[in-house]
Amino acid sequence: MRKSLIFTLLLALLLIAALFSLNCGQIRVPLINVLAIISQRLGLTLLDNTAFTNEQMAVVWFIRMPRLLVGLLVGAALGVAGAVMQGVFSNPLADPGLIGVSSGAAAGAVLCIALNLQAVSMYNLPAFALCGSILAVCLTVFLAMRNGKIPVMTLLLAGVAVGLFLGALTSGVLTFVQGQKLQEYLFWSVGGLDYRRWEHVQLAVGPIGLGIFIMLLLARHLNILSLGEAEAKAVGMNVIAYRMGLLLVAAMTTATSVCVSGNIGFVGLVMPHMMRLLLGPDHRILLPASALGGAMFLIFCDALGRVVLQPAEVKVGIMTALLGTPYFLFLLRKLQKQNI
């Protein structure tokens, strides 16, 4: 009963955040007009008598709706990937970017910008970022693997090493980049949902939807993995196969998210841990709750960033860091007390 109530509350908060996102901004659109525009675009007959302007329709459907859907997809992806990472590593401080995903995407993005390929096609930047993420994950796994085994601690250390190397490589490329290109990379690296279009929704929905679906299917196996390697082997589980499969799916889902939104931190760290406190460690419940919580949190942060300093806009990556850092410090302090 309590879990059903929490899921209902999460759905309600997600709906409220979505309506807030569609309603707010430099051009305010009344909520009834927002609903009428969505109804008309979906071919429904609801609210047909509600009048709205062409400007309001363009703002809601072609600017804010793609932005909302990208935020929903990215937030859900980061939430589920974060919960999977924390389960695989048995560490509440684990994050989707832990094994080089974010640093690989950054390296790919800065290379694309340095070569000016992002001006040729809007798909070049996310494609380079995705390739960079894939190469970073493969390099991390290659460095961590010994005799067909991948110890968790070795994987973490390899991820840190790869992240530092790619960070240095990215900084090196940036020193030779002109001012305008440097600004482009800066805006991408901070993370944001501004200027997202329906093409970005189409780019993200397939890989992210498939990745979340696979991780939800493997939730029961993740429960066994989180008990420890010895317990998992005792029930006949192929620990290496499932661990690497979950990590790769989580990494690729995160990489797709980074491709369409840039680097957005704290969603995959804060929301899974918060949902674990509310709902317990069962990943069959935790993963969908983390998806809802991550989507709600990211959409709310994006909408808040558009209104807090109007007419200026605070990018969503900054908002998630500002709101997520206090909770991270609380979590860190709590773990320190447990170890005393």
List keywords for this structure.
340 residues, mainly alpha, 14 helices, 76% helix, globular
Structure, described:
The chain has 14 helices and no strands. The chain has helices at 2-23, 31-41, 54-89, 101-114, 124-144, 152-174, 179-190, 198-217, 219-225, 229-234, 239-261, 267-279, 283-307, 316-339. The model has no long low-confidence stretch (mean pLDDT 86).
Helix and strand layout, with pairings?
Layout: H1 2-23, H2 31-41, H3 54-89, H4 101-114, H5 124-144, H6 152-174, H7 179-190, H8 198-217, H9 219-225, H10 229-234, H11 239-261, H12 267-279, H13 283-307, H14 316-339
Helix pairs in contact: 1-3, 1-13, 2-3, 3-8, 3-11, 3-12, 3-13, 4-5, 4-6, 4-7, 5-6, 5-11, 8-11, 12-13, 13-14
TL;DR of this structure?
With 340 residues, this protein is mainly alpha-helical. It has helices spanning 2-23, 31-41, 54-89, 101-114, 124-144, 152-174, 179-190, 198-217, 219-225, 229-234, 239-261, 267-279, 283-307, 316-339.
Main pleated-sheet profile: none
Average pLDDT taken over every residue: 86
Task: Work out the helix count.
Answer: 14
Poorly predicted residue ranges = none
